[in-house]
Every structure is written in C-alpha cells, then in structure tokens.
TrEMBL record:
The lineage of its organism: Bacteria, Pseudomonadati, Pseudomonadota, Gammaproteobacteria, Pseudomonadales. InterPro entries: Kinase-like_dom_sf (IPR011009). Gene3D superfamilies: Transferase(Phosphotransferase) domain 1. This is Lipopolysaccharide kinase (Kdo/WaaP) family protein. Pfam families: Kdo (PF06293).
Length: 212
C-alpha cells in the first residue's frame, strides 16, 4: 500500500468528477484519465479495517476473482490517504457496460429471461468457487459490451477454498430479495430461469435452493 502525501492526493484528484458521495464526502471519483478512485473512510478509530483496510480487500478480491476466471476491475494501486483517520483508497480501471439491473429494465420479457438464466449460472459458479459476495445484487453485476458479466463493488466479499454451504447460498439469495425490483425479476417473473441457470454448475444445490 502506497502512502500518499496531501500534495500527491491533490494532484491525483485535480479536476476529478465525483460519482458517489455520502455525509463524509466523496466516495468514488472519476479521474482525468478515466480511472476511478474509490475512498474508504473509517467511522471509528479501531475496527476490523485497521488490520485489513477495505481498499486492500477490494484489490485482493478483484485479483482473486480474475485468478478464478471471473471478470473484475483492473487494479492500479492501493493508497493510504493523508489525515488523522487512516482512510484508504483503491485506484482502478472501471469495467465498461451497464448494470444488470439497467439491462433488465431495458429488455423484453424474453431477453430478461435469458439474462436471468445466465445470471443464475454466474451465481452458482461463484458459490462453487467459494465466493461469498455478501452484498450481491443486480446493481453490482455489469453486463459488458461483449455480453459477458463483470463484478464490481468488491470490498464486501469473502473467497474461501471450498464451495459455499447451503446456508450461505440461501443468505445470498435472501439478500437479493431485499430489493423490490430484483425480487420481482429474479424470484417472481423469472424464478424458473434463475433455477435453470443455477442448475448447470450446481444441480444438487439448485434442488435444495429452488424446490418444486
């Protein structure tokens, strides 16, 4: 992790566009060269982030996903930012495309079914590879220009050595049901397509997750 001085940070972010922000300030910046800088500010002095900063988790997860054959942002650098609260940032090249949520909203019923089926296959492959993407939803899965899927917003992810347990798979599905739009497309209108896609890499688990 490279520690930036205030002068280096100011130079890096000069004329940057703020893409996301919260009550603490900018969260995601688009820099002049088109790369992104995602900032993580600690809300308390002592937390799990002290030992493993979220910026580092994001970068490590992106690289591990690529090693496993999934598409994720290309990492440029991880920074420790100047200031008293030990904030960190990850600098990366963003993936092109639109979110799966956007793609579904712009698709016909037949196209939605095909996308949901392919998403079910992606989800099963992640689970079989030991990837527990705790905050997965249709807004952090991208449909790339070539039609393949990419993953973003990667800090809230654990990658283990073994396939996920049934309980963790169920929790992953339950999380997606919190979003009304996602729930309608995945579990109401296209549940059979989601099950069919999930069944290809994980037929036995699909029977338990999608009974009937």
């Amino acid at each position: 992790m490279h520690r930036l001085s205030q002068k280096e940070l100011d130079g890096l972010t000069e004329n940057a566009a703020v893409l996301e922000s919260d009550g603490l300030g900018a969260k995601v910046l688009k820099l002049n060269d088109g790369s992104f800088l995602k900032l993580f500010r600690k809300r308390s002095r002592w937390s799990s982030e002290t030992l493993r900063p979220y910026a580092r988790r994001f970068a490590e997860n992106a690289r591990d996903l690529q090693r496993l054959g999934f598409t994720s942002p290309e990492i440029i650098q991880v920074y420790a930012l100047p200031g008293p609260i030990n904030a960190t940032a990850v600098h990366y090249w963003p993936l092109p495309g639109k979110t799966l949520r956007q793609a579904l909203s712009q698709s016909s019923p037949e196209q939605r079914r095909a996308l949901v089926e392919r998403f079910g296959e992606l989800l099963a492959k992640l689970h079989e590879a030991g990837v527990y993407f705790r905050s997965v939803h249709l807004g952090n899965v991208l449909v790339l220009p070539d039609g393949q899927f990419g993953l973003i917003d990667l800090a809230d992810m654990r990658i283990g050595r073994f396939p996920l347990s049934l309980g963790k798979r169920q929790r992953n599905l339950k999380h997606m049901r919190r979003y009304a739009e996602d729930n309608r497309w995945l579990f109401e209108e296209n549940r059979d397509a989601l099950r069919a896609g999930y069944s290809r890499p994980a037929p036995r688990k699909a029977q338990q997750l999608f009974p009937g």
